[in-house]
Amino acid sequence: MAKHYSLQAKLDKVGLVTGFHREDALQRMMDWADKTAVAAMGKAGEATGGTATPMLLVGLDAARRNRDESVAAQDQLTALSLFWT
């Protein structure tokens, strides 16, 4: 829903996201998701004595690499999904 409504996604003929009319909204979503992911990692690290942190860092790193406006729109959505998982 986010990619079609709140971000006003631009779609190609087959329905793949090619861009966003509201790039600013996407960046705010990414910022919030990043902060939330870092907080969740901290809690997971505390609960597991740090054993969950390395695995979670891999996902966080991938999300951060793909959140930039220079990557494809579909990759930005993947980054958002990675932050949320």
Q: What does the secondary structure layout of this molecule look like, with pairings?
A:
Blueprint: H1 2-6, E1 9-11, E2 17-20, H2 23-48, H3 53-65, H4 73-84
Antiparallel strand pairs: 1-2
Beta-strand percent range: 5-15%
Number of discrete helical segments: 4
Q: What's the number of extended β-strand segments?
A: 2
Main pleated sheet? 2 strands, antiparallel
Instruction: Give the overall shape.
Output: elongated
On the 0 to 100 scale, the average pLDDT is 83
Q: What structural class results from the helix and strand content? A: mainly alpha
Give the spatial strand order of the biggest sheet: 1-2
Question: Terminal Cα separation, in Å?
Answer: 17 Å
* Backbone CA Rg: 14 Å
Subunit organisation of the chains: single chain
- Uncertain segments of ≥5 residues (pLDDT<50)? none
Query: SSE order, as H and E?
Result: HEEHHH
Percent range for helical residues? 55-70%
Keywords:
66% helix, two-stranded antiparallel ribbon, mainly alpha, elongated, 85 residues, 2 strands, 4 helices
3D structure, described in words:
The chain is mainly alpha-helical and 85 residues long. The chain is 66% helix and 8% strand. The protein has helices at residues 2-6, 23-48, 53-65, 73-84, and strands at residues 9-11, 17-20. It has a two-stranded antiparallel sheet. A hairpin with a 5-residue loop joins strand 1 (9-11) and strand 2 (17-20). Helix 2 (23-48) runs antiparallel to helix 3, helix 2 (23-48) packs parallel to helix 4 (73-84) and helix 3 packs antiparallel against helix 4. The chain starts with a helix and ends with a helix.
